[in-house]
């Protein structure tokens, strides 16, 4: 029965097994990684993506985690959904908050979802203008991804070289991904995409341009998808602060969040062949900006969900630390927890608002309100820093000076640590240490990649949002409002 209803959905275990079948070309810490699935540094990031499959199987989360396919009418994972209403957009944000709460990490599957929706609506408009076949190509790809419940990495950010020069003016022409050969059966691409969240846990990669293009950048205006184990693709995993704690024995405590994490990589496309039916943009430079702007809008909305869920965990950890320190009743501690909550819910409010104010595109899927999504992300570049500052304030200095798990296990020092690092008498020293390590993980350990710096630069650095806010803010209309009230003719 169950199998019939959710035919297209993979279980978490099936997802893990499906990744084992990929022949990915991955390097990390100077070595080729032949078994990424069981690698202790990478496994927590896979577990976070697995959670997007696990929750979709649970009846209590079905309404958030699944959706109805726009293409086939089948039940699909919401991470593959083409949003069909503002309600869908709101559910997306709620789903992301839920996953942030369950993983306290980046669960990686959102970039593909956001790239899906941007590519769907843009290809429709390109086809209308040029009579091309990109939308049909893309719909077939979506259908394939839905039917196999795939994780798709959305690849946007090129290395960009000299930021003052356009793609075709770079000293090295490969600093933006480009078409190096056009063949009757497809194209050959070369270049790289940086900061690729979750690429090593993905079945497919959907590549989009990263900036608006001019006519001379024709070879750089390219969008396509290929399986992640396509010949010519190399992934070089990024380091995270404290990553090698995961390799140590007897260091589970020190890791802070043993089960979950995020992952990023530099992905190189060294003359990768893309067949015609997987091409979604091929030289139509004037549409590069549209696809970028729409993707960025969706991804700025996303942060109003995922960062809020992680923030929920951090606020909870800070409150626990206060309890365990015996400081929970202090009025300034209570006030700091209120401030953290206020900031976190403000992020959420913008995520919900830009969704509720969404609109239907020509292709029929829904786009968020651009101004509110950019306000959302601009807040995200700030508030998690303030929330972590307050968490560190409440936690106290021990979160960065406490000894290792091995010292707790050493008979010479263990009892000393038990005795002298005790907080309130009815909470074990070990529980107090666990919550401090979780705070450390989020504020300056492996998860800080996602919760802090990614909040700054992910989905576009702060200035990118300010440009959009300036464009969308409609100052002219506001001047008219003021003139009318002031009776200026
Ligand atoms: Fe999803 Fe957030 Fe990770 Fe981006 S940072 S992939 S929105 S969890
Ligand atoms: Fe991101």
TrEMBL record:
Binding site for FAD: 197
Annotated HpaB/PvcC/4-BUDH N-terminal domain residues: 11-281
Enzyme class, spelled out: isomerase
Gene3D superfamilies, per database record: 4-hydroxybutyryl-coa dehydratase, domain 1, Butyryl-CoA Dehydrogenase, subunit A, domain 2, Butyryl-CoA Dehydrogenase, subunit A, domain 3
Keywords for this protein: FAD, Flavoprotein, Isomerase, Oxidoreductase
Name under which the protein is recorded: Vinylacetyl-CoA Delta-isomerase
GO molecular function: oxidoreductase activity, acting on the CH-CH group of donors; vinylacetyl-CoA delta-isomerase activity
EC number(s) stated in the UniProt entry for this protein: 5.3.3.3
